[in-house]
Design goal:
The chain is of the alpha/beta class. It folds into 2 domains: 117 residues; 271 residues, Spore Coat Polysaccharide Biosynthesis Protein SpsA, Chain A, CATH 3.90.550. The chain is 23% helix and 27% strand. Strands 1, 2, 3, 4, 5, 6, 7, 8, 9 and 10 form a 10-stranded mixed sheet that branches. Strands 11, 12, 13, 14, 15, 16, 18, 21 and 22 form a 9-stranded mixed sheet that branches. It has a two-stranded antiparallel ribbon with strand order 17-23. A hairpin with an 8-residue loop joins strand 7 and strand 8. 38% of the residues are buried. This is Glycosyltransferase family 92 protein. It is found in: Membrane. Belongs to the glycosyltransferase 92 family.
Length: 448
């Protein structure tokens, strides 16, 4: 009995031992190794963003497999359903579906459909300013973006990526009050004296920065602009549009020909607005031979405070253009300064005779805008905006535009005497001298 009982007990022990061994073998064979226990993220790369993608270093970037060009990209969530706006130059007869793809701080996103919006003001040219709106996938901290012609997976080494500007970061730039956008310099433009006087005039009026898009300019003006850039007042944006297209020197395709209106003027104005959106309260859109001049205030800041208090919902302030023909000179010669004789360009203080605009025909304006309320702009008006438009009365503000006469048939006695610039001459003249001397345009002995 005892022997049988012991045998039965040993048998049960062996069975139990076999069951325990089978359990452990089964468990360890079904659990994966610890090194494989993670949820893989789609299309993750091992290198940091900067070493994993080829970011464009140019202001004009050809878009692969298209006739289009990309200029810049900005965070812009003002239009529902979209996160990023790309500014580009598109061939208008070659618009096909495009797809946005983002680099999200370490991995490649899924593609999303792009919305392509060609600006309405293209003046008949084959190429026109174009916005591309993109929505980024959730949980994507996007730093760069590009466009694809197909949704298929892409070899990122084949793409040039645009850095996304205006992203919310901890490094906040001090916001300025006024930025002037100048587009575009071309054809070896070398009007040094007027350029200097205009820049110094804008300083006196309270402008903080002038952004200039430069295709080409004369050697003396180039030295001047480098001097202002080193000072920090001028931001130079190289604009080699002639390396990619045949840009027109005019605005009308039938009359001037070419691929793109006036060296891409509309493209650069839109790019400048978006560059300034997070760093400037107001943006002035005008040419370098134009000065947006307050007539009831000493500076732009006090004028805009007054206008904004009366028109709080306005995004676009239109300022009327007034021509001061450069063929008519102030007779006393008071400001014909011999030391400026060797400086190339026009002396704006010598021209005080103003044309009355012909109000029976279209008369262009230029603009002061709140950049955060602008979506698309043309040269003389904003195309789409999140606010109203207001025409500033000429007695409050007007443009001093010194150039060839627009109404050449008018006689001198039919013009108005306007000496507004002279109100600033005590500070303007020594400041111009200092700027010219700093740029090597004026010798010490010539200042006496």
């Amino acid at each position: 009995m005892i022997s049988a009982s012991m045998e039965k007990g040993n048998y049960r022990a062996v069975v139990l031992l076999l069951m325990v061994a089978y359990f452990f073998i089964t468990v360890f064979n079904t659990i994966p190794p610890i090194t494989n226990r993670f949820v893989p993220k789609p299309k993750r790369v091992s290198q940091p963003v900067e070493s994993s993608i080829l970011a464009s270093q140019q202001t004009i970037t050809p878009l692969t497999n298209t006739k289009h060009f990309l200029v810049s990209a900005f965070m812009d969530q003002r239009v529902k359903g979209f996160d990023v706006r790309i500014i580009g130059i598109f061939r208008r007869d070659s618009i096909h579906p495009l797809h946005c793809i983002f680099f999200c701080a370490g991995f490649l996103s899924e593609t999303t459909s792009a919305s392509v919006l060609v600006h309405s003001d293209h003046f008949g040219f084959p190429f026109g300013a174009t916005d591309v709106l993109c929505s980024k996938p959730d949980n994507c901290n996007a730093t760069h973006v590009t466009l694809l012609t197909k949704q298929n997976p892409v070899n990122i080494s084949d793409q040039l990526w645009l850095p996304i500007r205006n992203r919310k970061t901890h490094n906040k730039e001090t916001r300025m009050n006024f930025t002037v956008c100048i587009s575009t310099l071309f054809g070896d433009y070398n009007n040094v004296l007027q350029f200097t006087q205009s820049l110094e005039m804008y300083k006196l009026l309270g402008v903080n920065r002038v952004v200039i898009y430069n295709t080409s300019c004369g050697p003396e003006l180039d030295r001047l602009l480098k001097s202002y850039s080193q000072e920090g007042f001028v931001e130079m944006v190289q604009w080699p549009i002639n390396q990619y297209l045949n840009p027109s020197k005019g605005w009308n395709f039938k009359e001037h020909g070419g691929d793109l209106q006036y060296f891409g003027q509309i493209v650069t104005l839109n790019d400048c607005i978006y560059r300034s959106m997070e760093r400037s309260r107001y943006v002035l859109l005008n040419d370098i031979d134009e000065i947006i001049m307050p007539y009831q205030h000493d500076n732009l800041n006090s004028m805009m405070d007054m206008l904004q208090s009366q028109h709080s919902n306005v995004a676009e302030f239109l300022v009327e253009n007034h021509i001061f023909p450069k063929k008519h000179f102030e007779p006393s010669g008071r400001f014909h300064l011999p030391r400026w004789n060797k400086v190339p360009g026009v002396n704006i203080l010598e021209h005080i005779y103003r044309e009355d605009p012909d109000r029976n025909i279209y008369h262009p304006h230029k603009m002061i805008v709140q950049p955060r309320l602008v979506e698309q702009t043309s040269v003389h008006e904003v195309l789409t905006k999140f606010g109203q438009r207001f025409k500033v009365p000429m007695e409050v503000c007007r443009i001093i535009h010194i150039r060839v006469a627009l109404r050449g048939s008018l006689k001198l006695e039919q013009l108005h005497v306007d000496k507004r610039l002279w109100d600033f001459q005590e500070k303007l003249i020594p400041n111009v001298d200092k700027a010219l001397r700093r740029a090597g345009q004026l010798r010490e002995e010539e200042q006496s």
